[in-house]
Structure of Guanine deaminase:
Amino acid sequence: MSNTRKAYRAAILHSLADPAVVGVEQSYQYFEDGILLIENGKVAQVGAAADLLPKLTGVDVQHYRDALITPGFIDTHIHYPQTGMIASYGEQLLDWLNTYTFPTEKQFEDKAHAAEVADIFLKELLRNGTTTALVFGSVHPQSVDAFFEAAQKLDLRMIAGKVMMDRNAPDYLTDTAESGYAESKALIERWHGKGRLHYAVTPRFAPTSTPQQLDLAGKLFGEYPDLYMHTHISENKAEVAWVKELFPARKGYLDVYDHHKLIGPRAVFAHGVHLCDEECARLAETGSAVAFCPTSNLFLGSGLFDLNKLEQHGVRVGLGTDVGAGTSFSQLQSLNEAYKVMQLQGKKLDPFKSLYLATLGGANALYLDDKLGNFLPGKDADFLVLDYNATPLMSYRMQQARSLDEKLFALTMLGDDRAVKETFAAGVSVHQREG
Ligand code: GUN
Ligand code: ZN
């Protein structure tokens, strides 16, 4: 955290609420020439330069021209051990796990390897403007130690957990119901609530845990305040059929988790492509969240996420990349693909809804909206400087744009890591693009 008072001047845009709830016009605040004032790693004030500059004598003001300052992006579902296997060819979920994922995750028994990948992963997140993520480790507790050690050095707000998996996976990658519980508990004691770090109890998905393991995971989830629960649900049709076979006594996929007390505030379910209305209603009623992972759902051929259905039920929804099944670390690219997922269903995705999903919506899904997601005073100073002229094509397209929503839409379609000029975490610059 920086002990300084510093101001940043550029166009500034942030979400105030969900456009689906308050309407687009009330959902954001925009200053064409704005000032973001940071004090001791927190937002102190945001406003128009004309109003704030006269009151800031003696304060260092950094001016970015033709740039847009936004809150840092929030990725509500990603796997750091899968960084090196992103873009692996040709399979759907269950074959993809066996062919690529499990052998890759085996390497994380080696803490030095885990530390190396954690560094690469965090650099990649920050290059892409993601300042907070909900992260799967591998089954090895040392993978989570390595991840949190790296995140702590950068003072990032990160959530992670060790995978719990005691069946239907190679022997080299399984724990037991008891060891999974004990190792997760030790990690919670070591890391949960330390600085800006949070722990997530992380059963991989229902097929790879026995009912005994799910029971203990549910017990652990209830044992500490503000813990997260992070898993997958209803991503792929063959997976859904398999869950039905493995848990014949349960009403459906969500009911497996519900039965084992793996539901409620801070429970985050990745994908949810094939959820029924009853499951959506239950997710909403319990305050659980779903991570929409468009690049992954398209890449693995999982299906089209029905954002409007979840929204109508009042489910909290965040945006996830799901790397390594997702094909990009960029939330801008995730929004590009999210738009196409909606188009394929004859639906729309407004650019201000996109902004919300990548920032305040993610914070809301993670119950971190008192700390993250926009520039209200007192929030963590995690923010980005985006460059409208990152590529010749973007620059030319922006010259044609007549309105903020047109520019924002083009940014989400054409932007990626190249559009992130600088990334700040807790008021400190943690990534500067070259050039
Ligand atoms: N379901 C269970 N494990 C995984 C995983 O690693 N990635 C994805 N996309 N889905 C899963
Ligand atoms: Zn995943």
User: Anything to note?
Assistant: The longest helix spans residues 111-127. The chain has two domains: 5-72+375-432, 73-329. The first strand starts at residue 5 and ends at 15. Residues 347 and 399 are 28 Å apart (CA to CA).
